[in-house]
């Protein structure tokens, strides 16, 4: 936490946006509707993905028994039969990450366009799209939290790949091989090898969006991210705004979105979120987090602390 605290004392910031972003009830205007409907199709599947991931138990017992008894064909078949449908689920989660990245691109295209003069106007006047962007971030952090606490995911997929490779060498036909071919298996394996695969997908997707839209200044994207972080912070620390939340779940939602967008900004911005020149009030964001019940924000604080400790704080050489 040392680096994090050091950064927090050295931030110069412009005037923060001050408006209420209605995460609970924002509805699309006619101008937003086309993009909103495209993204809504993806977000409708997000809860089901989280439910399936939360219920994912893995085939640990079957795999252990098969490994301990390599000559028992019945146990090998039981382990394979248990793993194949699970790999189908893991493939589904991976494919959803690709859909989520495409939805993110649609939202970034809308929220960074020249329709309005600055990101504050975009977020204030396109609240339904801002809400969807927040929902993507909320889903992403929740997915990664569940994945990190479930080692069965990587164990199951590793066993599937080893067994499939062995079957191919022995010319044994494998039921389920068509489910995931070798090229797709490599991509899925890389996806789950990351500690936070969904956030990595969004981070890479945002970087890709910037690189593919060279006519769009990178500041359009990074300012959109920093403004979203500021809006969340201001709503959480302002009693007038916070009292308008009808559910405590909206507070948790807002906290998670704030942290997610900070991490995205840190990934995309050339100097990161924790440098002196950052447009995000990191000190204020950390204070908002620490003002919550400790058990509810420990993971979020750890996520930010981890990012800070890995960030080169070159801009802080003048701070003491």
From TrEMBL:
Q: Which GO terms describe its molecular function?
A: small GTPase binding
Name the InterPro entries for this protein: CYRI, CYRIA/CYRIB_Rac1-bd
Q: Where would you find this protein in the cell?
A: Membrane
Domain of life, source organism: Eukaryota
Where would I find the CYRIA/CYRIB Rac1 binding domain in this sequence?
18-316
| Chief location | membrane
Identify its protein family: Belongs to the CYRI family.
Please tell me one Gene Ontology term that the record gives under cellular component: membrane
Kindly provide the name given to this protein in its UniProt entry: CYRIA/CYRIB Rac1 binding domain-containing protein
Q: Which BP terms from GO are recorded? A: regulation of actin filament polymerization
Q: How does it sit in the membrane?
A: Lipid-anchor
**UniProt keyword list:** Lipoprotein, Membrane
Pfam entry (one): CYRIA-B_Rac1-bd
Gene name for this UniProt entry:
fam49bb
């Amino acid at each position: 936490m040392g680096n994090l605290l050091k950064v927090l004392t050295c931030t110069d910031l412009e005037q923060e946006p001050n408006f209420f972003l209605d995460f609970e009830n924002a509805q699309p205007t006619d101008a937003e509707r086309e993009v909103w409907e495209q993204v809504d199709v993806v977000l409708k599947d997000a809860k089901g993905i989280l439910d399936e991931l939360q219920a994912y138990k893995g085939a640990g017992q079957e795999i252990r028994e098969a490994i301990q008894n390599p000559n028992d064909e019945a146990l090998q078949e039981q382990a394979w039969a248990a793993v194949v449908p699970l790999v189908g689920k893991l493939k589904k989660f991976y494919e959803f990450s690709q859909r989520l990245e495409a939805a993110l691109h649609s939202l970034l295209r809308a929220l960074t366009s020249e329709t309005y003069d600055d990101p504050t106007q975009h977020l204030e006047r396109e609240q339904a799209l801002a809400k969807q962007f927040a929902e993507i971030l909320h889903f992403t952090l929740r997915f990664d939290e569940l994945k990190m606490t479930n080692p069965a995911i990587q164990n199951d997929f590793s066993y599937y790949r080893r067994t499939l490779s062995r079957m191919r060498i022995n010319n044994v036909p494998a039921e389920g091989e068509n489910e995931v071919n070798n090229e797709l298996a490599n991509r899925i394996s890389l996806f789950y090898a990351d500690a936070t695969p969904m956030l990595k997908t969004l981070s890479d997707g945002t970087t890709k969006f910037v690189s593919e839209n060279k006519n769009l200044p990178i500041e359009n994207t990074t300012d959109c991210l920093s403004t979203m972080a500021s809006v969340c912070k201001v709503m959480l620390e302002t009693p007038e705004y916070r009292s308008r939340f009808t559910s405590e779940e909206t507070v948790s939602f807002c906290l998670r979105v704030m942290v997610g967008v900070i991490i995205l900004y840190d990934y995309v911005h050339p100097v990161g979120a924790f440098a002196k020149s950052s447009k995000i009030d990191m000190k204020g964001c950390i204070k908002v987090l620490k003002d919550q019940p400790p058990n509810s924000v420990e993971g979020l604080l750890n996520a930010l602390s981890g990012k800070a400790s890995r960030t080169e704080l070159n801009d802080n050489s003048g701070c003491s």
